[in-house]
Amino acid sequence: MFLSTLTSDSEFPPVSSEMSCPYSLACVSSEGDSCEFGSQKYFVLCGFGGILSCGTTHTAVVPLDLVKCRMQVNPDKYKSIGNGFSVTVREDGVRGLAKGWAPTFIGYSMQGLCKFGFYEVFKIFYSDLLGEENTYLWRTSLYLAASASAEFFADIALAPMEAVKVRIQTQPGYANTLRECVPKMYGEEGLWAFYKGVVPLWMRQIPYTMMKFACFERTVEMLYKYVVPKPRSECSKAEQLVVTFVAGYIAGVFCAIVSHPADSVVSVLNKEKGSTAVQVLKKLGPKGVWKGLVARIIMIGTLTALQWFIYDSVKVYFRLPRPPPPEMPESLKKKLGLTE
């Protein structure tokens, strides 16, 4: 089970003031926190926050995602976002815009559990390997490595439901529900039908998640340093959540751009039987892989902002430790001659 593996106290002991802290003094739990940073309860609730943030937001934008997927696999019929919505409503009715909501909710809830839960685990694990000073100096690389490691496992959890979702959304008449689609896909192609898209998913989601987490972490750091007129410690919880939302939206725009070509490949691959990622890439060409980018920027920008907002709100609600932006350790300041 993910949560029991994720939260083994023997492998990931709580971080306390007596231990070397990977984020300088930021990691020491305050009196108002409900648990210690890096404790079993902390990881469990972070995983729960990931379920809420990813499952609910992806389900909320199913209509836009459906139109985006159809633009990618059939650009001659679905020429733009507006045209895609009108054609879909004309052919399937308003209810047709909700096609694929069930596999979307299940798949992205599982992905969110692994994405956010494992990110917290790997961030602490890699930080302990680097030590306090190197964690600060190489913090961007730390965010990239931790998020990539987490997404590797998250995509394995997502792949089956993503395949079902795309098949329902892009093949009108194939199946209308999750219960109808799963046995049909399994009967035609076996278990491979649900995992043939996992490599393109890694191609799409790992760069996306690396950008999502690293850009978010560094944007938050810059906002508090250059934009917010007072230290984070003096900001109210509501003000901190506004900063979280803004940083999340900025990160989301970059996420959409770096991962869009692979997203186009995944959409076409899950629609067509017997195709490979290389074949689809050749078929789409340099221009075809960028079809639907505007829709995806709108969707992913909003999605990423809401995900970070919900995730941070869960931490606030359950009073989890929320370390402020990292500061240079005193030992490093002394080595660099920055203190008297």
UniProtKB/TrEMBL annotation:
The record describes its membrane topology as: Multi-pass membrane protein
Chain segments annotated as transmembrane:
241-262, 293-311
Keywords per UniProt:
Membrane, Mitochondrion, Mitochondrion inner membrane, Repeat, Transit peptide, Transmembrane, Transmembrane helix, Transport
What InterPro entries does this protein map onto? MCP_dom_sf, MCP_transmembrane, SLC25A3/Pic2/Mir1-like
What are the subcellular locations of this protein? Answer: Mitochondrion inner membrane
Q: What does this protein do?
A: Inorganic ion transporter that transports phosphate or copper ions across the mitochondrial inner membrane into the matrix compartment. Mediates proton-coupled symport of phosphate ions necessary for mitochondrial oxidative phosphorylation of ADP to ATP. Transports copper ions probably in the form of anionic copper(I) complexes to maintain mitochondrial matrix copper pool and to supply copper for cytochrome C oxidase complex assembly. May also play a role in regulation of the mitochondrial permeability transition pore (mPTP).
Under which name does UniProt file this protein?
A: Solute carrier family 25 member 3
**Source species of the chain:** Larimichthys crocea
